[in-house]
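## Example pair
The file below holds two records. Each record gives the amino-acid sequence first, followed by its C-alpha cell line.
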Amino acid sequence: MHPYEQYMKEISMPMRKELTEAGFKELTTAEEVDQFVNDMEGTSLVVVNSVCGCAAGLARPAVRESLESDNRPENLVTVFAGQDREATARMREYFEGIEPSSPSIALMKEGKVLHFIPREEIEGHEIEDIVTNLDNAYKQYS
C-alpha cells in the first residue's frame, strides 16, 4: 500500500468508528453496495462519510443524534468518500439525478432516494437543524 493511502486509512479509522459504533454497516466495495440495495427492505439511512470538518463537526454528530427518533430507519449503512472509492461511486449511481456530494445523507427505500441532504445543507448549519431535517424525513417516510 502506498504511504499516503496507509496514512489516510489510519487517519480515517476514528471517523469510520463514529458511525459503525452507532450501528452503521460499512459498505466498502461496489458489490456490497449492489447487494445492499438489491436486498433493501424498509427504509435505509445512507451516509456518505468524509474526512472534512463538516462531516466531523456536523454530519456524523447529527446523524447519530437523529437515531434517537422513534421513526428511525431500519437500515444504517455508510460509504467513505475518498477512501472506498468504488463503493462510493456505486452508491452515488443509485442517487439518480443527484450531484455527488460529501458528506451527504440519503434516506432510501426500495433502492430509491426519498430524501437527500447534500453538503450545502450540512456545512454552515447547526447540528439541531440537520437533526430536525432528518427527523422530519423519518416521520414523512416511515
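Second record, same layout:
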Amino acid sequence: MRELPRMAKGQYFEALLGVSLDAELLDRALTHRSFGHEHDVPHNERLEFVGSASVGVVVVEALYGRHPDLHERELSRLRLAIVNEHAIAEVARHLTPGGFGRYLRLGRGEAATGGRDKDIILAGALKAVIGAVQAQFGYSVSHALVLRLFESAIEDAGRGGPGPGPDWKTSLQEFTSMQGLGVPEYVVQQQDAVREQRFAATVGVGGAMFGPAHGRSKKEAQQRAAQLAWSTLTQNSSEKNGVPDSGSGARESRG
C-alpha cells in the first residue's frame, strides 16, 4: 500500500487527536522499526515507551477513581483487561473507518505479511502517537487524549463486559512483574506432526509449571498456557507474593 500524502495524514490525525502534531514527529510515531532499518530513519520505539507509560498511568487513575470499593487484586485485573497488546490494538482498529494501519510506515517484509493488522504493530504505533502528543504538548493533553480513546474500554471493564480478548502472554508477564515472580518461561513441543500439526506448551512461573495447553500453532498453545497460569495465579489471592505448588497448574487446556 502506498503511503498517503502528508496533508491527508496530517488532517486525519488532527481530527483524531484534537491537536496538530509536528509533521516529523507524527511520521516518526507511525514508523515501524522495519521501515526505519530499511531507510535509515528514526522509528517509533522511543515514543512508544513514553506512550505506554502514559496509557498505564491514566488507566490506573481512572480505575482507582471510578471503583473506590475494589481491592488491589480486582483493580489489577481490570487494568490488565485494558492495558494489553490485543486490547490496545483493538482500540487502534476501531478509531475510524478504514483502519489505523493504513497510515503506518512498514518495511517491505512487514507490509507483505499483514503487518498493518498485527496486534503488536498497531498497539505500538498507537502508543507512539500518544507519546508524540505528550512530547509536544505535555502530560495534561496526552492524559485527556488517553481518556477519550480508552473510555469505552474502561467502561466495559468496569461493567464486566466481554470486550476484546486479552493477550494472555502480556497479561501474565505484567502480573508476574507486579508480583516479583520473574519472567514466564515457555516450553513448546510439536505433536501429531503426521496427522495434524499440533503443539503443546507449558509455562514456568517462579518455580511452578502450568500446562500443558494445546493449540494448532505455537502461538496459540503459548497463549492458552499463559491464560491457564494467569487464571490460576490471580485466583490465589491469599498468597499475594507467592505461587501455588506445581500440581495446581497441571490442568490441561485444549484447543
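Notes on the second record: The mean pLDDT is 83. The first strand starts at residue 185 and ends at 191.
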